[in-house]
Structure formats: C-alpha cells, structure tokens
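Field: COMPLEX_INPUT
Field: COMPONENT_COUNT = two
Field: RESIDUE_TOTAL = 403
Field: MODE = joint
Values follow.
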Amino acid sequence: MIAATRPTPLADALPGMVLSEPLHDAKGNVLLGAGMVLTETMLASLARHGIALLPILGAAAAPALPDPADVQARLAQLFRRQPDDDAGNGADVRAGAALRRYVEAYRLNGSTGSTGTQPGAAS
Amino acid sequence: MNRLTSEQLIAGLQDLPSLPAVVMELLSSIDQENADISVLARKVSYDQALTAKTLRLANSPAFGAQVKVATIQQAITFLGFQATRNLITAAALSGAFASGRCRGFDDRAFWRHSIATAACARALARRIRFNQDFAFTAGLLHDIGRLVLVTAQPDAYAEVLAWRARHGCEWREAEAAVLGLDHVDAGVALAAHWQFSDTMRQAIAWHHAPHTPGAGSLAAIVHVADAIVHALDLSGESDDVVPRLSGAAWDAMGLSEEAYLHLFRETETQFSEMAAILLA
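Field: COMPLEX_OUTPUT
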C-alpha cells in the first residue's frame, strides 16, 4: 500500500500523528524526517518555525471526521419523534436511544468503532 | 379535508401502471421454491430494458457475481433463483411509476429510501439467519402504499405533504389526518390487488406495528431496517424523521453495537451501488 499524505493544518495536528514526508523550514533545512511521530514538544517547536501545514501520513480517502455538534444536531432532528422516558414504553425508549447512540458512534468514528486509533478522539 | 374512501382507493388502484406480467408473477409466487426457472428466464428476456437493468445489478459489487453474467439464465446460475428474482423486481418497480404527478412529492427520495431499506433488511436478515431474499423484497416494497396514494390522489397528497411540513411528523400521521387512511392501508390494498404473496402482504401491513401478535419476523426486520435507513439519512430529505422504533422488534434482532456499525457500513455501500444503477 502506498503511504498517502493528508495535508493537515498545524492547529489540527495531534501528538501521535506521523509525518509522511520530511518537513523543511523556509530555508530548506530539514526540521523533521519522514516517519517521525509527532510529540507536543515538536508541535510547539513547529509553531515557532512558522510551519502552517504538515504532511501527515494517513489514508488519502479518509474524510475529515464530522463536527460532533453537527452530528448531534442532525440526530436530534431525525429522532424528534422518538418517545422520551415519560411518554412511552421503556423498551421503545431504550431501542430508540440505542439506535441513536450507534448512529452517532458510526458518524463520529467510522464503521470499525475503534476509537483507540483516533488520537485525541476520546470524549 | 379530502377523506379518501376505500372505494376511491380501490378505484385508484386500477389506474396504477401495470407491471410487466413476469414481475407480477414473481411477486405473487415469492414463497414458491420450485418455480420453473427456464420459463422465468425466457419471459424476462423478452423485456430488454428490464433485462439490461437486472444484469447491471447482477454484475454490481453489491451482488458480486464471481463471473460477469450476460443473460438472465446465467444470473440465476451464479446468484441463485431467489436473488435474481429480487433484482428483476427491483429493476421493474423502480421504473414503473410516473414521476412529477404530485407537486412536492420527491419520488427519487422515495426510491432512495426503498432501495436503502431493501439493502439494510437483506443485511439484517443475513445476521439473524432469516431468508435474505424475502427481506430484500419486503424492504423494497414496504412503503409502496405511498406511491399508490400519490398516484391515485396527487392533489390530496400534495396537502399531505404540506400538513407534514407544518407538523414535522411521520408520513402516516399526516396521511391519516388529511386522507383518513395511510400508506399502510394503501399498501395492503395494493398487495391484494397485485396478489403479492402472504409473506409480503404481512410485512407491508405490520412494518409500523411489528409488536402485533402474528406480525412475523419479516415485519420486525423491515421495521428495524426502515428506522436505520431514516437514521442514516439515506433518503436525502432534509425533514426526514425516524419513525417510532419498537423495542420488541429491536430486541428481536439481538445484535451488538459492533454488528450494527458493520451493518450501517454495508447498508451505505450497497445502497450507493444499487441507487447508481436503479436511479440512473
């Protein structure tokens, strides 16, 4: 598999992400080599060097994860007719809540549900 | 108020498009395992548009024939009789109803929802070891009553759309309020008129009330698939709403969160492949 680069703004870069290409400063000096695993210290240092965009290793097709607030707002709208605790049979309430929770997890983490591989995704 | 009587509803059924005879035959005989395959293949092949669409579906990754099939007979050989029968039904139905008769009715959204429910019901059925082919067809047909109402009473249905937009409710609530009956009633009437098998008739009749004694597993599968597809936003309608989910039907599936997450992915993938062919 070919390593793909996901251009990532410095502000969105997280410790644990991996560089897919060497990172140069404005003069062409190599700051960090390809394959480096980013740390908090490195990210702070890159900010001082005026780096704006990082070549981060990742699946090319991986879409940006959606904003949790947008996902929750849309789900609240879609699930507006589900009964709440006062208005219905407990089994129906639980089922509606479970479906909503699963769809939310699916939207925010993808189908594998492997939250462990998403640095900083813990809520 | 446009109260729709059952006489008017039955009269409206006469105006519905006629499906190719072979599709009518398929829908009425879905419970029969021993239908004559060579006769079916020959009848379908008389309809070139239907054959072409069916073969494109059969060759799509969603159905994954290992070999590229070029005839209905080959599709039956590689995919099986029941699966091929599903594809023929989907290909025939999705093109059968005239669009644009009722202002504001989004028939592409209708078919997106129906196709997605078919895909989801099939995937659910496989996980709970129920007949996948019944589930697919029942998912495809579960809301067919809406097309009956739209076709029979386009002006009255435009009022249903307006009523629903004002109240943000489920379809059947708006239909009952404006017309006095809903798409389940219309679907049941159509199922009788088109002589659907009893299995399909029951699934259509109980897909919003799967906890009713005697409703059967198929109604529960379609009920859960319908809710999932609404929750996944696959119809593309901005005012979509998840119908009230039955705890009894949900519990009957007995699936884990992980199983549902995979099911969601499978549904979305198969839906986009099928929609690309059926709604081209």
